[in-house]
Write a structure and sequence with these properties.
single chain, 182 residues, mainly alpha, 6 helices, 82% helix
């Protein structure tokens, strides 16, 4: 167990804390949930940085890091779908969560074929991740200021478009394997 793995595990522990804060009856509950989500995003960047910088990458960390990311994002989107109760959050949330499932399965399958590198994380995927994380944070905190909420809405819609775009990039890269034509 090393510091990067501890930070990854801390992100998983933050999930129920975020949910509790989100439903906390006090007015600041959702703001605390947004802060916890933001803190999880910071630890996500920091654990990866430390793992590379300190040469502390482990199989456990390589497994848990994407799991922690997908869990907290999926849970946060479920909370936002309930909070906003509108198709304008539900559809982008379904697109983003659905893409994560498809690409995770695609990466696993490509890894079994020894071709994981052909579906490595792209620049579009990184921008998409940044925007979806920003959207979640701003939409959770948005009830406190309309400008913050609008930043969340714009980030959400751009993230949804980039989600589809990045999924197409990954599927195009894997298409020969999917069609058995490699």
């Amino acid at each position: 167990m090393n510091l990067p793995n501890i930070l990854t595990l801390a992100r998983i522990v933050m999930i129920p804390l975020m949910v509790i804060c989100f439903y906390w009856p006090a007015e600041q509950g959702k703001l605390w949930a947004a802060f916890i989500f933001w803190l999880a995003g910071v630890t996500d960047w920091f654990d990866g940085y430390l793992a590379r910088k300190l040469n502390q990458s482990t199989p456990l960390g390589a497994f848990l890091d994407p799991v922690a990311d997908k869990l907290i994002v999926a849970v946060a989107f479920v909370l936002l779908v309930e909070q906003y109760d509108t198709i304008w959050v539900t559809i982008p949330a379904c697109i983003i969560i659905g893409r994560e499932i498809v690409i995770s399965a695609l990466r696993e399958w490509m890894a079994e074929l020894g071709k994981r590198a052909s579906v490595a994380v792209s620049y579009v995927g990184k921008v998409k991740t940044f925007l979806q994380m920003s959207a979640i944070f701003f939409l959770m905190a948005g009830q406190f200021h309309i400008v913050v909420e609008w930043i969340g809405w714009i980030s959400l819609f751009v993230a949804a478009v980039l989600t589809i775009w990045s999924m197409m990039i990954y599927l195009k890269a894997a298409w020969p394997e999917l069609m058995g034509k490699s």
